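User: Hi! I'm working on a homework problem where we have to compare a predicted structure to a textbook description. Could you give me the structure for the chain below?
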Amino acid sequence: MSTVAATPPQISDQQKLDAVWLSPGGFFGWFTHVEHKAIGLRYIVTAFVFLILGGLEALAMRLQLAVPDNHLLNPDLYNQVFSTHGTTMMFLFAVPVMEGMGLYLVPLLVGTRNIAFPRLMNFSYWMFLFGGLLLYAGFFLNTGPEAGWFSYVPLSGPSYSPGKRIDIWAQMITFTEISTLAVAVELIVTIMKLRAPGMAAHRIPLFAWAMFVQSWMVVFAMPAVMVASTMLLMDRSVGTHFFNPFERGDPLLWQHLFWFFGHPEVYLIFVPALGMISHIILASTHRPIVGYTPLVLSLIATAFLGFGLWVHHMFTTGLPQLGESYFTAASMVIAIPTGVQIFCWIASLWGARIRVDTAFLFALGFFSTFIAGGLTGVMIASIPFDTQVHDTYFIVAHFHYTLIGGAVFPLLGAVYHWYPKMTGRKLSESLGRINFALVFVGFHLTFFPLHILGMHGMPRRVYTYQPGLGWEGYNLAATIGALILATGGGVFLYNVFRSRTRGEVAGNNPWGADSLEWSTTSPPASYNWVEPPVVSSRYPLWDPAGLGGVAGLSTDYREVLTTTDLDATPHHRYRMPGPTVWPFVTAVVGGIGLVSSIFQPILIYPIGVLTGIPLTLWLWPRGKRG
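Assistant: Happy to help. Predicted structure tokens:
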């Protein structure tokens, strides 16, 4: 009797890819991840944690200012809360959360399996987290910054801010800007070289375009504030005099360096939000966007113009009138690209059968709120008017209308739009509408009265005020609005956590949207697609002939396809590096060096040399599996 050997079962490509792209499990494995969706979600969640902290600080300030002669916060604590709030919102929430959305969505939008330089992505997250922990460690130890999120000299110099408060702030800047620059490089290379075959420049999704433009802005803007904060730290710790006028330094140099970063910073937040609005409108109208090319060119124009008007933050410093005239004109011209965007969106909505869901409501909230902020921005471009209101609450109202209206409203809409892709479940629409109503009403009740307070002369950055000045009612209304706004934030968080397990199952494409992220599972596999897509249309999911698949990529190791810059024709295969702990170790050792230099500047040298050891192990070739 003969026997026949059993044929071993065939392993499918999907099973092979599951094994090859698997992220290590367990506590220690968490430090080694190099998968873009995991790190992107970490950025988003961490940034929202910092948003909660910054929001609590804002609420504490509003409670302090609700009535005159209040003593809820003493002057020093108020200054720390005020400075930490602004620093948190600008450096630890607004830009990181947009980059987190980019890390999660851009590889899906352009049709690749992972971000470029995935180990650098791991390193960038830890640098961001360590910077935030450094700031809050100082804050909770009564060593928080007290000179504002802008840390103007000489107030932030050694003469007026002794101790280590400003030193901690300055090194926090180094942590977060290294992180931001790293993410920008990853996104630029991903969008330029890892797009799906056929995704030529005129077919790139608008959010990917927005992140591409934003990333280039980061590359040019962030070095300015890193240089400025390093110069400030050196003035304070090793006796240089970059900003000391008595030693031939110049305090205005700080403002030029800071605002050369600081005004593009607004657009680093705003430009990704424009891409989010375009995707929400596409999904809500279910028809092609009107003016794709003008929308892209407007993003690019906003980026270029954003670098040409930093001095409008300095109109009261006594600059030459010719220079002031130039920056006045630039401050007005910057409104034109945004106007083009808004008209394209209106044309896209005109005559469409619109699905009015929560994401679309937040898009409408963005329109009304940001337009109001833009109009006050044109007002303060006028030097005589700006001179009168520059140090008043009118400016506080303006930039909150611009930043929250121009970024937070689109961001919340984007969460409602892409949450099903991230989790496989929808957020509750009933809770979403309550969320929108509370946020919209609370925001306007909080910040609209500040315009009036500014016109009535209430100065910024004061911790209390005397009764009888006519400010009491407006401040009390603003505080009530802040409580309503905080309640709206609580509803949003409850909706997010509740829907994670109890939300309606979404399916792959619940909105009938057009872009590639909706062509894969919800949530996507670690490698996104078994066969990465090939496109021949700007809206591949709406064009039956617009979507194909790449065959032949290896299933034995992490391999992606690179394509040419403009036409996205296949160029070569690229092996992605795998998980490793060394980016985390590099961040830890480098972080120790940066923190140690606050107390002993000389330590930056030996610890900098030690950082080279894990960096070398990070970059060392490890075979076909990375």
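For your comparison, note the following. The chain has 18 helices and four strands. Residues 427 and 499 are 5 Å apart (CA to CA). Good luck with the assignment!
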